[in-house]
Amino acid sequence: MTIKDIPEEWEIRATETPFTGNKTSVRTDDVVMPDGTVVHRDYQVHPGSVAVLALDDADRVLVLRQYRHPVRHKLWEIPAGLLDVPGENPLHAAQRELYEEAHVKAEDWRVLTDVYTTPGGCDEAVRIFLARGLSEAEGERFEVEDEEADMELARVSVDELVRGVLAGELHNNCLVVGVLSLVAARAGDGLDSLRPAQAPWPARPFEA
Question: Which has the closest alpha carbon to 164: 65, 71, 79?
């Protein structure tokens, strides 16, 4: 048996959007179950995101610490952000986020992994990129505001991040998934075997 997720959509009898926010909304669907019953399913509708595991020549990952109000924590994370425009090329979005949050550019880009962050309650899909060949970006630094104005930036070794993840000290999902995927890729066929940066992404289709 091949272990692979497959797309499937059950019948929806009715749908409504009781809340619409600035970037996301909440939707309620009446979904037909396999036995014919109809149940309500509430979930957050999300435009999708990208994240960047930026790896330098000293085997350090570029991380930033940012306050996240819903969980009342300052979390160490990798650069990430929303797909601002429907159909936006995720590579371009990732390059923008790396520039805006870290003022860094990268020469080599690969797809590290694709994930649904919380599929039981949100349709958010995230593409996590591996970026190598890092250098300082040209031009002025992006002007930050709100939580980002308090952001800290650091470069931390892969080994130290793995230790922190397994010790329960690091919790951001993109950082956890990205770092452990990096280690798994190295132990497998190597980083150069990762998918190209413009690999198809059925969860958020785009024009290359």
Answer: 65
The whole domain housing 21 covers 12-45
195 forms bridges with which residues in the sheet?
111
The CATH number given to whatever domain includes residue 158 is 3.90.79.10
Catalytic residue among 11, 88, 124, 148, which? 148
Write out pLDDT tens, residues 101-129.
999 999 999 999 999 999 999 999 999 99
Q: pTM (2 decimals)? A: 0.93
Q: Do 40 and 60 sit in the same domain of this protein?
A: no
Q: Is 148 a catalytic residue?
A: yes
pLDDT at 145: 59
Q: Are residues 100 and 55 in the same domain?
A: yes
The span from the CA of 175 to the CA of 182, in Å, is 10
